[in-house]
Amino acid sequence: MIMYDLPEKIKKLAPYEPLEPSLLIGKIRLDANESFMRFPPEAIAEAVLTYGELINRYPDPYASSVLNVFGELYGVSPNNVTAGNGSDELISIITACLLSRGDKVLCFSPDFSMYFFYPHLYELDLVIQQKNYKMLIDIPAAIEKINNENISAVMFSNPCNPTSLGINADKIKKLITDTKALVILDEAYMDFWDESQTLLNFATEHENLIVLKTCSKSMALAGIRLGFAVASCKLTNVLRAAKSPYNVNLLTQAVGEYALLNKSRMKTMAGEISRLTKGLKDSVNNLKIPEFTRIYESATNFLFIEIKDEDKAAKIFEYLFENGIVIRKLGKYLRITCGSPEENAVLIERLESYKEKP
Fold first, then answer.
1. Is the pTM of this model over 0.85?
2. What is the per-residue pLDDT across 303-341, written as a single tens digit (0 to 9) for each?
3. Are 236 and 84 a contacting pair, CB within 8 Å?
4. Nearest 5°: CA angle at 305, between 347 and 31?
């Protein structure tokens, strides 16, 4: 009997499971860059009640109401926006449909893991450029590589996950205007940083730029899975044609619309988290833990900490895990999400006890 054999590209593919769920019960989760703030339950209830009677019908395929309020909030036309089932789905659509097998995609290391995953899945040629000693993208070197090596697309986050650093918008504009490559720019953490650095409006005017936004971070809505791609009308029409017809479910659209309508609440939440993140950095700095060689300035809702070596990073990660706190270990670096004031206090207490242990 002739048996079906898996394609080579997925034979070693494993599900994305950072940690076994059963091991996380009762622990403080500072590993996923989620917001510790709770979206008002009464707002969710109101949104569900408003749209619940339509649950027997398919949702609006274009998520028109959500796009309208998104456009009003960020000052872009809804005609330039595509809604997705989280930014992950939009990255998948972009890499699958706007690029062809064998096209070269430039990514930077370190950066968000999904940028490396989807090009592999769709049989693109992944090219990786290491960031400089400051953990920033060398823009002139990237432009040279794109133009000399026939790079079709470049994908990165700003501010960056996991480094927590932001790059000035003018530098990124040069990358966009000095190359023909498609630039996929993920601004998932921009609401924590500086509104003047966003390239949302720039994206509507340039045919080679797509800017991604998400409701998972500053809006405290990671659970509804709602993301947006802002681009020229030409690219937007392609993305809308390529996505599945009903990719954003009814309840996600309802809650997302309600959230986006309240700009003042969003700004208050993002501002409070930024304030707490800066305070957490100061508190960690004051501990003067010998293994910590550098704590990077944060333009996000998390800290990125360089440890002397990977073994010591693993020991700190394991100590915190055993004492009820989950963070992320990335080689010799630790990434720690800002939690609530109470959670941050427990973290500092555990790090203090680690420092003092024999």
1. yes
2. 999 999 999 999 999 999 999 999 999 999 999 999 999
3. no
4. 55
